[in-house]
Amino acid sequence: MTRVAGWGGVPAVDACERVGEALSEVCRPASLTRGLGRSYGDASLPAQAGATVASTRLGDCVLLFDREKGVLRAEAGFRLSQLDALTRPAGWVSPVVPGTHHVTLGGMVAADIHGKNHHVAGCFGAHVRSLLIQVADGRELEIGPDREPELFAATLGGMGLTGHILEVEVALLAIARPWLVIEVEPAPDLLALVAALRTASRAWPYTVAWADALARGARLGRGIVIKGRWAEPGEAPAASPVRSCVDSRLAVPFDLPSWVLAPTSIRIFDAIFYRAHCWTAGRRVVHPDRFFHTLDSIRDWNRMYGKRGFVQHQSVLPAAAGDEYMVRYFETIVRHSGASFLTVVKDCGAEGRGLLSFPRPGVSIALDLPMRGAATQALVDALNRLVLETGGRIYLAKDALTRREHFLAMEPRLAAFDAVRRAWDPERRLRSALSVRLFGDAA
Ligand SMILES: Cc1cc2nc3c(=O)[nH]c(=O)nc-3n(C[C@H](O)[C@H](O)[C@H](O)COP(=O)(O)OP(=O)(O)OC[C@H]3O[C@@H](n4cnc5c(N)ncnc54)[C@H](O)[C@@H]3O)c2cc1C
C-alpha cells in the first residue's frame, strides 16, 4: 500500500499502486489509471481507499518520431519533459502544454489539457491523431477522430473513465527557433487586466495573466499580462537550450508550517511580485521553460502549503456573462480572505471536441487555496454559485471540493458522456474518487 494524492495533497488515500513497463498488463480492466498525479484533487485516486490504481510512469517508450512530418507516437507514460528534450532540438514542440512539464501524455489526453494558447490552438486533444485504448472489458482498440469517434470524444477530458490510454499519437508544432520572445505588461486593476489580456490574445499566440487576488478597492485584481511567441530566425540562437532551466536543485525539503502561506504573507508576496514585474515590463527572449513551466523551478513547491495541503479552483466565466461577474468573483475571494498565492487568468477560445473538456469561450480563473477545512469549502461553494449564475463550469483536473449538485447544474453535457460510458462500460467498472463524488458512481 502507498499513500496516493493529487498535487494539492488533499484528499490522500492508501492504495495499491501497480507499476510496470508493460502497460497493457499494468492497466487491468477494473482499476483506474494514473500518470504523475499532477491533477490537483481526487481525479487520479481510486474510488475506494485500499483499491488498486495502475501507474503508467514506467511505460514511457517512444514508438515513432517522424522528424519530417512532426508526428510523435509514444506510450502513455511518456512525459512532457521527455518530449521537450527529444523534439525541441529537431524543431518541433508539443502544440499545447500545461504549466508543468511533469505530466504524462496519458494525463494530457485524459484531462484534455489547455495551455496559454487555447485561444488559437484549442486543447491538446485537437492535435491527437490516434489513441490505443484498453476499454473496460479488456479489449484494445485504436481510436481517433474517424475511428470510434464518440469514444474518442469522450476520452478527451474523460478523466480516465472511458478506458486506459496505452499509446498516444500527436501532431507536433513546428518552430523556427527553440526560444521564446515574451512581453510583460502591468495592469492597475481587474478590468484593465482582462482588457489587456483580450487585446494581447488578438496578436500573440501565448497569453496569460497573473492577478493579485488580495488587493482591494481600486487595485482589486491588479496584475500583469505576459505574452509570448516562438522566436524567429535573427531574434534568437538556432541552438536549443542545452537542458531545462527549471529543473534546478532548488526544492522545498519538507512540509512548511501553515503560517508561511497565511493571508498576510501571501499579500506581501503578491505585492512584491506585482512590483517586480512592473520594473521588468517590456520585451525579451527567454528559455521556453521559463515561460511555460516557471513553477517547476522549485521542486515539490506544493509542500509550501504544509501538511494540510491546498486545493485549486479553476473555472471559466463565459464571455457573454459580462465583466461585472469577474469583479464579483474577486470580491468573493477578498470577502472570504481566500488568499491565493498565484491567481492565473487565461483567455479561452472555442469549445473543442472533448465531451467533458473544460475550456469554452470566456475567461478562466485558477486559484490555489490553502486547505482550511470548512472555510475553504464555503469559499469554493460561493465561487461555484457564481460560476453557475454565469453559465460557466469548473475544471475537473483541478477540483477537490465541488459539490455534486453544483457540478450537475453546470454540466448539461454529462448525459452525452454517460451514454458513451454506458455503451463501453455498462457496469461502470472504471471509477475514481472524483467520479464517486461528482458522477454518482458507487464507491
Ligand atoms: C503546476 C501545475 C500546472 C498545471 N497547469 C495546467 C494548465 O496550464 N493547463 C491544464 O489543462 N492543466 C494544468 N495542470 C493540470 C495537469 O496538466 C493535468 O492534471 C494532467 O492531467 C496531469 O497529468 P498526469 O500525468 O500527472 O495525470 P494524473 O494527475 O495522474 O491523472 C489525471 C487524470 O488523467 C487520468 N489518466 C492519467 N493517465 C491516464 C491513462 N494512461 N489512461 C487513462 N486515464 C489516465 C487519471 O485517471 C486522472 O483522471 C497543471 C498541474 C500542475 C501541478
The shape, in one word, is globular
- Give the helix proportion (percent range): 25-40%
- Percentage of residues in DSSP E strands: 15-25%
The CATH architecture of the largest domain comes to 2-Layer Sandwich
Q: Number of folding domains?
A: 3
> What would CATH call the class of the largest domain?
Alpha Beta
User: What low-confidence regions span 5 or more consecutive residues with pLDDT below 50?
Assistant: none
The averaged pLDDT comes out at: 92
The major β-sheet equals: 8 strands, antiparallel
CATH topology of the largest domain: Alpha-Beta Plaits
Lateral arrangement of strands in the main beta sheet: 15-12-14-13-17-18-16-19
Q: Structural class of the secondary structure composition? A: alpha+beta
Describe this entry's structure for a reader:
It is globular, with a radius of gyration of 21 Å. It is an alpha+beta fold. It has helices spanning 23-26, 80-87, 105-110, 118-121, 149-155, 190-203, 263-279, 288-292, 324-335, 374-390, 404-410, 414-424, 433-439, and strands at residues 2-5, 12-19, 32-34, 52-55, 62-66, 71-75, 92-93, 128-134, 140-143, 164-171, 173-174, 180-187, 206-211, 223-230, 282-286, 310-318, 343-348, 362-370, 393-394. A hairpin with a 5-residue loop joins strand 8 (128-134) and strand 9 (140-143). Helix 9 (324-335) runs antiparallel to helix 10 (374-390). The strands form 4 sheets. Strands 15-12-14-13-17-18-16-19 form an 8-stranded antiparallel beta sheet, sandwiched between helices. A 5-stranded antiparallel beta sheet has the order 5-6-10-8-9. The protein has a 4-stranded mixed beta sheet with strand order 1-2-4-3, with no helix packed on it. It is 27% helix and 24% strand. The chain has 3 domains: 2-56; 62-174, Uridine Diphospho-n-acetylenolpyruvylglucosamine Reductase, domain 3; 180-407, Alpha-Beta Plaits (2-Layer Sandwich). The site of flavin-adenine dinucleotide (FAD) has 32 residues, from strand 3, helix 3 and strand 10.
